[in-house]
Amino acid sequence: MVPMTTTSRPPVYQPRLIEHRDSQATTGAARGVRLPEQWLRGVLAGAEAVILGWLVVVVPAVATYIATAASPALGSAGWMEAARVGTAGWFLGHGAVLQVGEGTISIVPLGLTVLCSFLVAMSVRRARLSTWAPAVTATGTYVALSAALLTLTDVPGAPWGVLGATVVAAVGVLWGMRRSLPPLPARLVTLSKATPEWVRLGWAWMWRLAGLMMIPALIALIAGLILGFGTIVEVQQSLHADPVSTAVIVLAQLLVLPVLAVWTLSYLLGPGFTVGGDTMFTPVGIESGPLPLVPILGALPEPGSVAAELPFVVGIGILVGALSGWWLSRRTRSVSLPAALGAGLVAVFGAVVVLMLLGWLAAGGIGAGAMSSLGPDPVQMALAATWQLGSGMLVVLVAAHPSTHQGVARAWRALGRLGRSG
Questions:
Q1: Is the same domain home to 240 and 388?
Q2: What is the pTM of this model?
Q3: Among 139, 235, 376, 391, which residue's Cβ finds the most Cβ atoms within 10 Å?
Q4: C-alpha distances out from residue 422 to 33, 353, 416, Å
Q5: Domain check: are 176 and 283 in the same one?
Q6: How far apart are CA 35 and CA 37, in angstroms?
Q7: Of the residues 188, 208, 229, which one is the last residue of a structural domain?
Q8: What are the respective helix, strand and coil percentages of the chain, to the nearest 5?
């Protein structure tokens, strides 16, 4: 018999992947304190958004100072003063009302506001946040760093921008996480299920209605920029600015383009807007006067132009409401007519609130005297949007609902029977 020999094989080790968890810091592990999941990613996302948005405003301000440092008008001002001015402008984009001398700057450059929210959204998306805790951390970091920037500016009114920073950060976080929103807390889920279906439909459609109303305003604004391009270039050349200052002026005007879009929306709704004292731009007539020396204002319609007598443009709001009512009617065929009308009312009043908020942000002043009253009247703008969007929406909802068709059919048959019996 041949003896059997056994050969021992070395043990096979399977590799293990040890995942790094952001939820626990080294010091926290020793003390048993667990930080929220992905907290570090949230902190970095909020800090990145603040720094990038702040640099968008401060770098051009400092560059303008460097390009004009030899100007006697600057006096003893330095680059730190330019950074303070840029920081004040950054807070203005977050809703701050700045007191400068005897005047007040209260018009919010909505382009900067949108840009800051967009930077938050991009930072959150790169961080791949997956729970609500790091999302709250990102928002808190953005607000905390915004408060820290107050040390760089001494302009009265800038602290109010910290409140606006909370809204900008929250909107940006939700925007960045819209494709992968984590589950809502159980209480909110229960509340959402208890909400009637027609309320949920109206809430969802109010954002679409407000966005759809902005489309004709953007089209009209682009048309005005094209038609007034020659005037815009002429005013720009009259400033005799150096290349750096020209680039800064162009950037500043791009940041206020959304403000002009809101002014255009108020023009299409009927109330119109003002650009200083003794001016009024409405579709039924234009009263123009001395305007600020801002090149982009060359896109405003002039008295006697084609855009000066367009009273029929108020029908655009009715048309938008009717189109939205037709789309909403396709979602409300399975509910009763009162429920469908309720959804339409929620959508209309919600959209009106959004548009009124935009009108409020786009109105205000940029100084004292005639420049203290610019933009639309948000209340008149809201009233015009209510009756135009509401009439178009509700008429179509009633006309397109199946119960209306059934009622008309029954009435027609009853009339037929009455005619035959007669």
A1: yes
A2: 0.85
A3: 376
A4: 89, 54, 10
A5: no
A6: 7
A7: 188
A8: 65, 5, 30
